[in-house]
Specification:
single chain; 207 residues; Rossmann fold; 6 helices
Length: 207
Amino acid sequence: MHKYFITGIGTDVGKTVVSAIVAEALEADYWKPVQAGELEHTDADRVKGWISNKVSKIHPCSYALKTPMSPHAAASLEGIEIDPGKIRAPLTKNNLVIEGAGGLLVPINDVNTMLDLLHKDYRVIVVSRHYLGSINHTLLTLNELRRNGIQVAGVIFNGDEHTSTESIIEKQARVNVIGRIDQEPLIDKAVIRKYAAKFKPQIELLS
């Protein structure tokens, strides 16, 4: 069984949607180690509501923080410090999709970032959303992963097609492009199933 870590080039780029798509495509379990804010409707709740298969299991997060801020700041407001040693992937015989919080170098305490939660055996999928500066942010994320010996499984673009942006990232980073999610007016079970079926052949090649 494999672990797929979903990271993004920043916040609000579509990590949760991609996590649901990959979980649906592989009928994999889902786990978000650190949730900051929106505890009444978490990313895990969204994934649970979007997937259709009956196999995937949603595992509880290691840290559930009340404030929608960087994890280190949200934890500080609650008088706690996030301990990476207490963040352990759930035991499962199924494939596991792990969703990061924010971008790769988002701090979780005064010393560690999300990058420190990645293991060498993780297959990392980077979510890139088109905006001014996204090429730089995408290439920096990919370079930092590789610099730290982390396996980059591929990139998923999110948003309306931008051919020149997608092409230069693919060429300069020499990265596998799994696919692109269009600017959907609504994300629901049907949309997740559509992209799960579309991306499934590429995702299965990562196994």
